[in-house]
Amino acid sequence: MILVDPQGPKGAFLLEPLQQAGLPAVLAEPQLDAGDLAFCGRGVGGTSVNIGIEFKRLDSSSTDLAQSLRSGRLSGEQLPKLLGERGAYDMAWLLVEGIWRTDPKSGLVTAYKGARRGWQPIPGKMPGSELEKRLLTLELLGGLHVRFTNTRADSIRFIGALYRWWTDRALDQHVSHLAVHDAPTFHAITDRATALLRWPGVGYKAAAAAESHFQSVLNAAKASAGVWAELEVGGKKFGKARAKKLVTWLRETT
After folding, report:
1. pLDDT (tens digit, 9 = 90+) per residue, 26-39?
2. Together in a domain, 25 and 136
3. Run of H or E residues at 82
4. How far apart are CA 172 and CA 160, in angstroms?
């Protein structure tokens, strides 16, 4: 269940789109202690992890983010309520929504204000470098994850992805970061060639040449550096340096 803080316009702006996206969003009663959205995720072994989201806009109609950074409200008031010893959450995200850019000449943060006015500096004339560095400090030293989106639809998609990531499975069951890379192949290759491809310095052409020359993986593994160096690969020699590195690796792993 995603709890949406009812205070201010943020709750009204987010609740209905979240529900329309099929997410289990309800207004928080009473209001949240911190942040604009909250839900409970599944940590290591399925333990409960409290997740919070602080939502801010940065566009032509809102400068909430810049103002809260400059005044210190975000770092001095909101961040301690989100994270830390007195914080309400174990992990928290700052979700920044809006279309903005840094002016290449002035270096100021600008927002698009229509065809007639174009891109104009936001009130306060904050440099883009200042905005980025303040957010980096919050992220790297304050532990607050920062995410940018352009539109409300983007924001809803991210919130949905974050919610499902934390609730579909436990934290220690996410293993895609441990995947082993297998180079794509565009033609069928044998099991022997596939094995040879895992050796350092052996590409597709070298694997095919080695399979044809040695006839077996065992023979290839026993071959000397000199033999490997003379192996014909696409009209060229496999080479002494590559052969020496390969044979050294083979001797160390067998």
Report:
1. 988 888 889 899 99
2. yes
3. helix 79-82
4. 20
